[in-house]
């Protein structure tokens, strides 16, 4: 069975973005960036919500194209309309649980949950999130989009690895244990 890994940058106060969805304040340079790019090779499938996919437009992503060329993309949204889709991009508007369970039961590497917070919280609530790979940035936002959106589900985490980067970013790997 494949794992779903929430691989995400957070502030010290556990926000994945500012309230407006921007990510200013996360370190865009440093020794942690090469490690992040290398870790992306661990995945052949990426899942995300609409706002996370559209966030890529600010960085040159063209609508309907893959953000990560070596991965199959599943964008979960009831409102996203992309008329010209790459073969690597699917928009999922209905029965998301069935597809996610099918992906987990399928073959391939672990599945990269790119975001966002509400989608991650929904997966957590459904008991489908298996691992966390948190890039803890040395910044405090004060308010913003929470790591797990509005989810209030309690879980236990087992720390499996840590990496401290000279940039000040900490990479924290956890296995999720549901209570």
Automatic annotation (TrEMBL):
<dbReference type="InterPro" id="IPR024072">
    <property type="entry name" value="DHFR-like_dom_sf"/>
</dbReference>
<protein>
    <submittedName>
        <fullName>Dihydrofolate reductase</fullName>
    </submittedName>
</protein>
<dbReference type="GO" id="GO:0009231">
    <property type="term" value="P:riboflavin biosynthetic process"/>
</dbReference>
<dbReference type="InterPro" id="IPR050765">
    <property type="entry name" value="Riboflavin_Biosynth_HTPR"/>
</dbReference>
<feature type="domain" description="Bacterial bifunctional deaminase-reductase C-terminal">
    <location>
        <begin position="3"/>
        <end position="171"/>
    </location>
</feature>
<dbReference type="GO" id="GO:0008703">
    <property type="term" value="F:5-amino-6-(5-phosphoribosylamino)uracil reductase activity"/>
</dbReference>
<dbReference type="Pfam" id="PF01872">
    <property type="entry name" value="RibD_C"/>
</dbReference>
<dbReference type="InterPro" id="IPR002734">
    <property type="entry name" value="RibDG_C"/>
</dbReference>
């Amino acid at each position: 069975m494949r794992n779903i890994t929430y691989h995400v940058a957070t502030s010290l106060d556990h926000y994945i973005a500012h309230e407006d969805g921007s990510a200013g304040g996360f370190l865009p340079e440093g020794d942690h960036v090469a490690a992040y790019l290398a870790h992306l090779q661990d995945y052949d499938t990426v899942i995300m919500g609409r706002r996370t996919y559209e966030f890529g437009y600010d960085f040159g992503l063209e609508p309907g194209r893959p953000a990560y060329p070596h991965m199959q993309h599943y964008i979960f949204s009831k409102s996203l309309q992309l008329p010209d889709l790459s073969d690597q991009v699917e928009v999922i508007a209905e029965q998301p649980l069935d597809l996610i369970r099918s992906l987990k039961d399928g073959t391939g590497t672990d599945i990269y949950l790119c975001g966002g917070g509400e989608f991650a919280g929904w997966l957590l609530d459904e008991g489908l999130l298996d691992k966390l790979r948190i890039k803890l940035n040395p910044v405090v936002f004060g308010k913003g989009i929470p790591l797990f959106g509005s989810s209030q589900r309690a879980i236990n985490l087992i720390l499996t690895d840590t990496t401290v980067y000279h940039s000040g970013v900490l990479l924290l790997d956890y296995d999720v244990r549901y209570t």
